[in-house]
Amino acid sequence: MATRETATSTTAHTEAPGGHAKGPFPPFDPNVFAPQLIWLALTFGALYLLMSRIALPRIESILEARRARIANDLDDASSMQGKAQAAGAAYEKTLADAKAIAQATAQATRDKLAADSAAKRKMLEDQLNAKLADAERSIAGTKAQAMSHVGEIATATAARIVSHITGKPADTAKIAAAIAATKT
């Protein structure tokens, strides 16, 4: 027996004193429910106090800071959107003003060019009308001069025709009188 006692004393103590523990698993043992419930209540209370006094206020402050930052970002975005819309409206107004100025300038240039063109055309028409009047006066003078010689030419031509047909010289005074009688 002494060898047996030596063998047990050298082995690891994994068993409960007095041999194998018999009975239910300790948390399910009805004999230890009361102390377990007391420890459960104490642990729950301590965790509740720890969470409500330390952890949850920190989380709440973090969430509040996030909410505030998001609200500020949204406000900033809203104000920037308003500024962008105002800048867009100002740009559109400036663009419309620039278009109006450009159109007015183009119209003024067209009107000036049309007036210059009309003035040049009027001047050229006046010059051409003056040249035409001079040409008509020159033609009328030449015509009058030519008409003044028509009687002489007609008399000379008729005298030649008569002398050619008859073979005798024609009387130019009689031919001139006959031509003068036909004019009146």
Task: Give me the secondary-structure topology.
Elements: H1 2-10, H2 33-166, H3 172-183
Helix pairs in contact: 2-3
Write a structural description.
The protein is an all-alpha fold and about 180 residues long. About 85% of the residues lie in helices and about 0% in strands. The protein is built from three helices and no strands. It is rod-shaped and about 190 Å long. Mean pLDDT is about 85; it is low at about 5-15.
In short:
The chain is mostly helical and 184 residues long. The chain has one domain (38-183). It has helices at residues 2-10, 33-166, 172-183.
Q: For the report, how would you describe the main beta sheet?
A: none
Share of residues in helices:
over 70%
Order of helix and strand elements from N to C terminus: HHH
**How many domains in all?**
1
How many alpha or pi helices? 3
Globally, the shape reads rod-shaped
How many strand segments?
A: 0
Termini separation (Å)?
193 Å
Instruction: Summarize model confidence as the mean pLDDT.
Output: 86
The secondary structure category is mainly alpha
Approximately how much beta-strand content do the residues carry? under 5%
- List segments where confidence is low: pLDDT < 50 over at least 5 consecutive residues: 5-14
Rounded radius of gyration (Å): 68 Å
